Amino acid sequence: WACADKLMGFLTTIRAELHVHTCLSPCAEVEMIPPLIVREAIERGIYLIAITDHNTTANIEGVMKAAQGSGLAVLPGMEVQTREEVHSLCLFDTLEQARAFDNWLRAGLPPMKNNPDYFGEQFVVDSTGDFLRREEQLLILSAEYGLEETFAKVQELGGLFIPAHVNRTAFGLLPVLGMVPPELPVEALEISRHITVEKALQQFPHIARYPLLQGGDAHRLDELLGANKFTIAEPTLAELRLALAGIDGRSFRISPRS
Fold this sequence. Notes:
It is a single chain. The protein is an alpha/beta fold. It is about 25% helix and about 20% strand. The strands form 3 sheets. Strands 7-4-3-2-1-10-11 form a 7-stranded mixed beta sheet, sandwiched between helices. Strands 5-6 form a two-stranded antiparallel ribbon. Strands 8-9 form a two-stranded parallel sheet. Strand 3 (about 75-80) and strand 4 form a beta hairpin. The longest helix has 12 residues, at about 95-105.
């Protein structure tokens, strides 16, 4: 992991996009295949991404393999839809952690088959973007697990839980529940690409106590926003946590693409 002149272990500032879908998410475009995601991210100066398909991790390995040797770091993740119909990003350090979470979540999804003509295709692909299979389980459903239970499972596996696009009417934590539940000790919130931090704080002043990230929620290549700039030593959740807390010289900020 390095942009050309960066060395592992030294603090460096990188642009990150922590909310990226692939062609496995039925609402994403077919262009969201591993090699194109990697190329587009690097062309936009983004050197850290998280793959967060809806309720699945099956395409993460392909993106990680496509990124090998490119300088782009890929965190495995998922965008979960909980019982409350709230979306949250669940990020992990390793593919093994993400797969363990996938196995747990999959058991809580209603057994409903996808209708590609209505919901969209759900393609599992390899690192080159070649077709492997269709995912038959409809992925854009609420799991039977609630926010607290899901948060606890992510924590148990060593992951990072971030409520997604919290300002959004559809599946956003704040419009759906009206608040961040006090029993949910999240470390950050994500706002959508369509609102500024200032406007988000005007609408929801009680979220001022949380670090706010901004997600591209990329379903198309041109939606790779990369608005988050992290000053960290390496692309790990431990470093992201230090940056969110502003500890040991680590930091983060939202910055438009330059």
